Amino acid sequence: MTEYVLRFFVGGLVVSFFAMLGDMLRPKSFAGLFSAAPSVALATLALTIHKSGRAFAAEEARTMLLGSLAFLLYCILVSFVLRRFRPSSLVATFALLPVWFAISIGSWMVFSGRW
Amino acid sequence: MVSAKLSALKESRPHEYFMRFAFGGAATVLAGFIATHFGPGPGGLFLAFPAIFPATATLIEAHEKRRMAEIGHDGTNRGRMAASIDAAGAALGCIGLAGFAIVLWLLLPAHNALLAIAAALAVWIVVSIALWKLRKSRLFGLSRRQ
What is the pLDDT of residues B81-124, one digit of tens each? Predict the structure, then answer.
């Protein structure tokens, strides 16, 4: 339980730090780079290495690659939908989240031979 | 030209900072929970979960709308376009994020963890900024000539 509380606070702090950087920077397209900062990875890596070792963390990094490619496609899709159809950002970003889940979990299943 | 405006931090309200803190914390807990219960494979996917992105895009739209409302205009479309531009920037950042993951994957098993994390962070920032500059200059230059 203590570990999860620690993760919550460290994760919240690191994510908030990158979000504030994004708030301050101009132009917006440059600030957008920080929306895809490795904040969750940075927050969790030290704990993972300490608890499960470097090999476990390296294995996580391998599939993080698939997660980041899914994130890339998700961002392209959100940008296109917002520009083309102009829904609210809240609707577009949440309605398209299943795309991230489908691509990341689907590609992991394919590459790990589970599918 | 890239610039940083400290005063931009005043645009966000306390509950907006709290929301992003909570989203970030929850995503980090989720990544840890999945890695512990389902192994490093599925856990790793969630290290690249768009944890903060929906909240950031929503806040960008809200701030733009608020700014335009102050001068008596409807900023709905402008806010959504600003969020779209942020998403396009985030897409470039994702390529940097993939570089971060590759460096960690290759360096972590045989090198000092701190060194591997520092190298991965350097690759993320260099790749992201290089792609952004390329997109700003070369690609936009080509589209103007066409």
Answer: 999 999 999 999 999 999 999 999 999 999 999 999 999 999 99
Is the CB of residue B49 less than 8 Å from the CB of residue A67?
yes
Q: What is the rounded average pLDDT for all residues in chain B?
A: 90
Q: Work out the minimum CA distance from B124 to partner chain A, whole angstroms.
A: 8
List the structure tokens of B19: 């929301």
ipTM, two decimals: 0.94
φ, ψ dihedrals at B3, nearest 5°: -140, 160
Mean pLDDT for chain A? 93
Q: Is residue B144's pLDDT more than 80?
A: no
CA-CA distances (angstroms) from residue A91 to A72, A81, B26, B47?
Answer: 19, 10, 20, 23
Chain A: give the shortest CA distance to residue B35, in Å: 8
Which residues from chain A sit within 8 angstroms of residue B83, using beta carbons?
A: 82, 89, 92
Q: How many CB atoms sit inside 10 A of residue B138's CB?
A: 10
Cβ of B9 and A8 within 8 Å? no
A79 and B94 within 8 Å at the Cβ level: the answer is no
Judging contacts by C-beta atoms under 8 Å, the chain B residues touching residue A106 are none
Q: Residues of B with CB below 8 A from A30's CB?
A: 2, 89, 132
Q: pTM for this structure?
A: 0.92
> Residue B145's pLDDT band (boundaries 50, 70, 90)?
very low
At B105, the amino acid letter reads W
